[in-house]
Design the sequence.
């Protein structure tokens, strides 16, 4: 027999026995002792004896009204994360501001004129549409698509 025919025969046996049940149970499988966990000792939880709660402090008590101390404020803040204040927004230069005004101003003028049923001249329509397109193009052109100047020789994990 050739090595190829041996592989074919082994493959046929694997395919033929695909739906057969396993001969051994998984409990019979050998398990290395190094994988066994040591028996965990039983733990006993000891609770302090419950004291009767004063009126208005039980599980069904109403929440305290305004101006009433509800308890230690440190208990409420435990586990609460307050993020640091965000950095200030970058200052925009004049061309960027004008591009944003044109981007939103053109459609805003068309919307107001349509809602107010104003008679619009051809040059006003052209100006509004041109302002929208020009503002969009200006913002896209000014958008930086390269790495920042201070990135050095290795960009690394840029977020």
Sequence:
């Amino acid at each position: 027999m050739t090595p190829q025919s041996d592989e074919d025969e082994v493959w046929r046996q694997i395919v033929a026995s695909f739906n057969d049940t396993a001969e051994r149970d998984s409990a019979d499988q050998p398990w290395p002792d190094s994988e066994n966990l040591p028996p965990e000792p039983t733990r006993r939880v000891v609770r302090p004896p419950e004291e009767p709660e004063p009126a208005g402090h039980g599980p069904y008590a109403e929440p305290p009204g305004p101006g009433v101390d509800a308890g230690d404020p440190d208990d409420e803040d435990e586990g609460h994360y307050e993020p640091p204040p965000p950095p200030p927004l970058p200052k925009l230069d004049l061309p960027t501001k004008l591009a944003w005004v044109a981007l939103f101003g053109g459609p805003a003028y068309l919307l107001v004129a349509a809602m107010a049923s104003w008679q619009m001249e051809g040059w006003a329509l052209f100006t509004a549409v041109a302002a929208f397109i020009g503002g969009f193009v200006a913002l896209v052109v000014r958008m930086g698509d390269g790495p920042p100047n201070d990135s050095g020789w290795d960009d690394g994990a840029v977020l």
